[in-house]
Amino acid sequence: MPTEILAGRSANVLRMGAGGPAVLGIHCSLARSEALLPLIKTLAPSGRVTLFDMPGHGRSAPWDDEGDYQGVTAQQALELCTNPTHIIGHSFGATVALRAAVLAPELVSRLTLIEPVFFAAAKGTQAYEQHRRDFLPFEEAIAIGDTAKAAEVFNDMWGALSWSHSPAATRSALIDQIHLIPAGAPAIEEDNAELLTSGALEALDLPVTLIRGDKTQPIIADIHHALVRRLPNATDLIVKGAGHMLPITHPSETATLIKSS
């Protein structure tokens, strides 16, 4: 995977295929671009696809704590879009995809947002209040520097495997990267980009497909409902039996929904 300079930072980029509409994939936090390969290979086995490791992930340069993490990553994504592109994002990567589309809608042909963790969109709901209670142990662990506890809490809320069943190497990697979760928090917890208050979502007139699992955290449904109310051309689809990591655990079912929408 070659290194490129995106938004002034070294990033690892994987380019595949040559035909068909351009597709850009953005992975979830604490993962790497390869996490989307099962989905991408099912969706566009010979198509023109670009994947990249977000800052601090995979083989991209470490995050330097300079600037807005989501904003920098969105700019990196846009620099990979040389013509209108179908952007597929998962979890935090889906929030990056949404922000990129708001920043430069002329570079985006359509969006697929798989469980975007845009928590600010669900404020005022019971699920949001439950999310805040459930996530408090993570914030407390971060505050005292207990990265192992923070990683365990985060993983058990959002991971495909429980902490106790995760391989030691996986647990170690999550602990090393867990600081990236607070780095992205201002954008998804507080909407520091003002996507919810500026009218930007209502003006985003391009096809948006939201996909979620029916076994995921309850707040995801409320996030999807809030976004569907604001986005003029959005649909909300469900993968039965899937949790938050559905691009990895249910790539075929997810690809089928994307193709049919």
Automatic annotation (TrEMBL):
<dbReference type="Pfam" id="PF12697">
    <property type="entry name" value="Abhydrolase_6"/>
</dbReference>
<protein>
    <submittedName>
        <fullName>Pimeloyl-ACP methyl ester carboxylesterase</fullName>
    </submittedName>
</protein>
<dbReference type="GO" id="GO:0016020">
    <property type="term" value="C:membrane"/>
</dbReference>
<feature type="domain" description="AB hydrolase-1">
    <location>
        <begin position="41"/>
        <end position="255"/>
    </location>
</feature>
<dbReference type="InterPro" id="IPR029058">
    <property type="entry name" value="AB_hydrolase_fold"/>
</dbReference>
<dbReference type="InterPro" id="IPR050266">
    <property type="entry name" value="AB_hydrolase_sf"/>
</dbReference>
<dbReference type="InterPro" id="IPR000073">
    <property type="entry name" value="AB_hydrolase_1"/>
</dbReference>
